[in-house]
Design brief:
The complex is a heterodimer. Chain A is mostly beta strands. Chain A is built from no helices and 11 strands. In chain A, the strands form 2 sheets. In chain A, strands 2, 4, 5, 9, 10 and 11 form a 6-stranded mixed sheet that branches. A 5-stranded antiparallel sheet of chain A has the order 1-3-8-7-6, with no helix packed on it. In chain A, a hairpin with a 7-residue loop joins strand 9 and strand 10. The N and C termini of chain B lie far apart (about 35 Å). Chain B has no helices and 11 strands. Chain B is about 0% helix and about 50% strand. In chain B, strands 2, 4, 5, 6, 9, 10 and 11 form a 7-stranded mixed sheet that branches. A 4-stranded antiparallel sheet of chain B has the order 1-3-8-7, with no helix packed on it. By secondary structure, chain B is mainly β. Chain B is globular. Classes of the chains: A mainly beta, B mainly beta.
């Protein structure tokens, strides 16, 4: 089975806090990994891809551990505008239904 | 480049009715994937169309059907609507059947409410 699980939310954090989201996936034969951000009542938008060596984009850091089938997203110095749902996505390879979303973790950054 | 566009943006239907949702793929893309996102859940794969043929299907009943046209635009049809069909329907286009190396780009979605 191809499943993606995420930390249940919601996460409520004060502005300036550091917050981390975790994601696990079921199938070791996975090709690529992504974090998407979804604002309320909007479509998901790609936040960042996740590379084996880990990657950083400003305040956002993504890590991948293939051995443990685990992905993480770290947000430093949280801003009010970071409030959204964060979706972990695993591309299990092949076609169609192999691009699988997790259920999402909702983040609320409070003033 | 022109992105993925979906229509209509919002729709209200009565239980038992039929609905057609439309998706125009990004220029140069030949594959369209449809997802259903219920409130509070992640998007669930419905099916994918590649060169006008269904190419993979998720766990959805036959009353969910689709089409892809020669210009690679696509329709999602749902018959005998049920209350649980209320959701955001998302479309993504790509070149080739697999997801792009940088993931999918989605249209803004159609929000369907069944009453």
């Amino acid at each position: 089975r191809k499943e993606v699980e995420q930390d249940p939310g919601p996460f409520n954090v004060p502005e300036g806090a550091t917050v981390a989201f975790n994601c696990t996936y079921s199938n070791s034969a996975s090709q690529s990994f992504f974090w998407y951000r979804q604002d309320c009542r909007k479509e998901p938008k790609l936040l960042m891809s996740v590379y084996s060596s880990g990657n950083e984009d400003g305040r956002f850091t993504a890590q991948l551990n293939r051995a443990s089938q685990y992905i993480s997203l770290l947000i430093r110095d949280s801003k009010l505008s970071d409030s959204a749902t964060y979706l972990c996505v695993v591309n299990f390879g092949g076609y169609g239904q192999n691009f699988v979303f997790g259920p999402g973790t909702r983040l609320s950054v409070l003033p | 480049e022109t992105g993925v566009t979906q229509s209509p943006t919002h729709l209200i239907k009565t239980r038992g009715q039929q609905v057609t949702l439309r998706c125009s793929s990004q220029s140069g893309h030949n594959t369209v994937s449809w997802y259903q996102q219920a409130l509070g859940q992640g998007p669930q794969f419905i099916f994918q169309y590649y060169r006008e043929e269904e190419n993979g299907r998720g766990n959805f009943p036959p009353r969910f059907s689709g089409l892809q046209f020669p210009n690679y635009s696509s329709e999602l049809n749902v018959n005998a609507l049920e209350l649980d069909d209320s959701a955001l329907y998302l479309c993504a286009s790509s070149l080739g059947q697999g997801a792009r190396a940088n993931g999918y780009t989605f249209g803004s979605g159609t929000r369907l409410t069944v009453v």
